[in-house]
Amino acid sequence: MSVESIGTSRNELAVLWDVVVAPRSAFDAIAQRPRWASAFLVTALLGMLAAYLQIPAAEHVTRATMAQQIAHNPQLAAMPSEKQAQILANVLVWTRIEWLAIPVFVLLAALITALLMTVAKAAAGGQATFAGLFALAMNVGLIYWGVGYLFIAALITVRGSENFSSAADMIAMWPGLAWLTHDAAPKTVAFLAGINVFSIWSAVLLTLGLERIARIPRLAAAVPAVVAILAAEIPVILSIQ
Fold it and tell me: Is-above-0.85 flag for pTM?
């Protein structure tokens, strides 16, 4: 590896660190030279580790959900036990390899966020390249997809996989409005869980970053940030039964 490439990598990691401790410096660096490879690598690795740590709890939830479906679905209950076991085994395969798909989710999230910011920039008459906005989205993505997911994985691991009987139970571990609800409907819990410390932190950084990089009013910059956070909730809510 050349000295130049080492320096470039170190600079990218410094920008990523500044997103957490000195956002304005990070935004200025991104505006000057949009880079996202290191941010993607770090975020994806943290997200994959978080998802991997959650596999025991996810397996426990899958088995509990299957048992509930057998109890309430006559057609499924009438199946031979071998067939039921095969269905469960097929679902568990995805549960055990889902962590490998995290990089794809991170890329899609950054792409959608960048597209939303591009629309807001154009509507407000701002100035910024798509590369700059994509780099901003990817660097800020560390907060939610990296740090946030790892924090939740740690909470789930400490609590113990046997204490989770549904996907809503796991989602409710996000430190946010879901902690204030009791006996709410699963989809309501999923929605409220999406409004948490890490999503709000991300929305604030995206707003300030877009305002600084694209030079548009803060209110205009806040719109795509909020929409991006809410959009991330849609697949989660739809997956809850």
Answer: yes
